[in-house]
Design brief:
Elements lengths: L23 H9 L7 H30 L2 H4 L2 H4 L12 H13 L3 H17 L1 H8 L5 H11 L5 H14 L5 H15 L2 H12 L2 E2 L3 E2 L7 E2 L2 E2 L2 H20 L6 H19 L1 E2 L5 E2 L12 E2 L2 H4 L7 E3 L3 E3 L1 H8 L18 E3 L7 H10 L16 E4 L9 E2 L3 E4 L1 H9 L3 E4 L5 E4 L5 E4 L5 H6 L9 E3 L6 E3 L18
Antiparallel strand pairs: 1-4, 2-3, 5-6, 7-8, 8-9, 10-12, 11-13, 14-15, 15-16, 17-18
The structure holds zinc ion (ZN) (2 copies).
């Protein structure tokens, strides 16, 4: 593939596509080319040219993101100057602020948008040659990320530039995985200490990710553990040995099933007893004043087996009626038929700032996730926010309280977002740039049937003001767990 920035003449015939640098001329040529009239060889070239053009546009987009990040709405917030805001709770990051703005606009989760914005800013400000390679269509966005994140482990600027240049030479002809391998080898050659530092950092970032629904089968999910290999090996070896022992003793389940069941049994036992057994007996933390539970919302008729209406597993989504009834047989089931059906009964006015138990229960049942348009954080790990702040005369009640993840709470309190509760249920958000997004009310279990039969929660909803679509079904915002710190607001 030969490309150069200066070579931006319109192609003469389709044979020119492979030689044309990305930009307006290539864009026009691609729009006008008729794939049906091309031979196989040329169609391959046209497909590759599209790829280069898309990379080029990502570089163009990165410059726009970086430009926006420097503007007043995103570059600063009150926490930067106001000493009354406790900085321990908030270190301002313009990539976060601009990412939040772009999240519903691009229908990416807040975390996806923040990571994207962070890389865009770094590319434009610190990694010019990587940005240039992207702009020329020589590397993809993912390869740019691999290179930038990789060389950031080197603290010597000269070494960084050296490694970056060598990677950029090879990257166009490599898969992402090959590039990863080359990068790892170069990093340990450039600085043997890097491997140790990266391992320490990887160890620091060990985590258990929340379950992610399987796209194909309702009620099936997968879960990822990331951390030191030896710890995971210990867990797997133990579960495997237990499974083999049960199998040898005549259990009819296969080894995969037994390993899974043994591991999940740890969770069910802990929820039943309130204690997570292990070398340290850990008493489970409460969430919003309730013991930790797996919450399902089940219509009474379904629980009684009269019908099979869809049920909701809190923080996760729909599960089949049969699965919900299985959970309901277990003693840890709590919330069932206890949800008030009329939110108007739950208005406490100015009598109390912190939401009473009945209100919390109602809010968490009404909104099973953070109510930001693109955020999927389960509501039981969210803060309960006052839409109109208490200091500004806001009341405590179903018409002003809603769950917000910590990241979205910061966006609203410090970064210029506002939220309005709509009369018909649902919410209207307004971004710092002035874009508005409507979040329709969520359809959950009995509430849907008794209170708002006319409003199901659609996947998309065009906003009357901007025509923007909001998407409410994306990955969870796995930001800071709000339970680990008291909220700063
Ligand atoms: Zn800030
Ligand atoms: Zn959120």
């Amino acid at each position: 593939m030969s490309t150069s920035a200066s070579d931006s003449q319109p192609p003469s015939g389709t044979r020119g596509l492979a030689a044309t640098a990305p930009g307006p001329a290539l864009g026009l040529a691609l729009e006008e080319c008729q794939p049906r009239q091309l031979d196989d060889y040329d169609v391959v070239d046209a497909i590759v040219a599209c790829q280069r053009q898309m990379a080029h546009l990502q570089a163009v987009q990165a410059r726009m993101v970086q430009e926006l990040s420097g503007r007043e709405n995103y570059a600063f917030c009150v926490a930067c100057e106001d000493t009354e805001v406790d900085n321990a709770f908030h270190t301002h990051d313009r990539a976060d602020a601009v990412g939040q703005e772009l999240s519903p606009a691009l229908t990416w989760t807040p975390n996806e948008a923040k990571n994207h914005a962070g890389l865009a800013i770094e590319l434009v400000e610190e990694h010019r040659s990587v940005l240039r390679a992207l702009e020329q269509g020589r590397i993809s966005w993912n390869k740019a990320r691999i290179i930038v994140r990789g060389v950031s482990w080197l603290h010597d600027a000269w070494l960084q530039a050296e490694v970056e240049d060598r990677l950029l030479e090879d990257a166009p002809g490599m898969t992402e995985r090959q590039l990863h391998r080359r990068l790892n080898r170069m990093l340990s050659e450039a600085d043997p200490d890097t491997a140790r530092k990266r391992r320490a950092e990887g160890r620091k970032k060990r985590r258990v990710c929340p379950p992610v629904p399987d796209d194909d089968v309702t009620g099936i999910a997968s879960m990822t553990l990331v951390g030191p290999a030896e710890d995971l090996a210990a867990l797997y070896t133990a579960v495997d040995a237990g499974a083999r022992a049960l199998r040898a003793a005549g259990d009819s389940r296969n080894l995969d099933q037994l390993r899974f069941d043994l591991l999940c049994q740890i969770g069910w036992n802990a929820l039943a007893t309130g204690v997570l057994a292990g070398p340290e007996q850990v008493r489970l933390a409460n969430r919003h004043g309730r013991p930790a539970t797996v919450n399902v919302t089940v219509p009474i008729t379904t629980l009684l087996g009269l019908d099979d209406q869809p049920c909701q597993l809190a923080g996760y989504g729909p599960i089949p009626a049969e699965a919900a009834r299985r959970i309901a047989e277990d003693a840890v089931l709590r919330r069932l038929l206890t949800d008030p059906v009329d939110g108007r009964l739950l208005e406490y006015g100015r009598t109390t700032y912190s939401p009473p138990r009945a209100l919390k229960d109602f809010v968490l049942a009404r909104d099973s996730r953070c109510v930001f348009p693109t955020c999927d954080t389960p509501s039981d790990v969210c803060d309960i926010d006052h839409g109109i702040p208490w200091e500004d005369g806001g009341t405590t009640g179903a018409s002003n309280n809603h769950p917000l993840s910590r990241g979205c709470h910061v966006a609203k309190t410090l970064h210029g977002w506002s939220i309005e509760h709509l009369d018909w249920g649902g919410y209207r958000w307004r971004s710092p740039a002035g874009h508005t997004y409507t979040v329709p009310p969520e359809a959950v279990g009995p509430i849907r049937h008794l209170a708002r039969p006319e409003h199901r929660r659609p996947r998309t909803d065009p906003d009357p003001d901007t025509g923007h679509q909001t998407d409410t079904g994306t990955d969870a915002d796995t930001g800071t767990d709000p339970d680990s710190d008291p909220p700063p607001f």
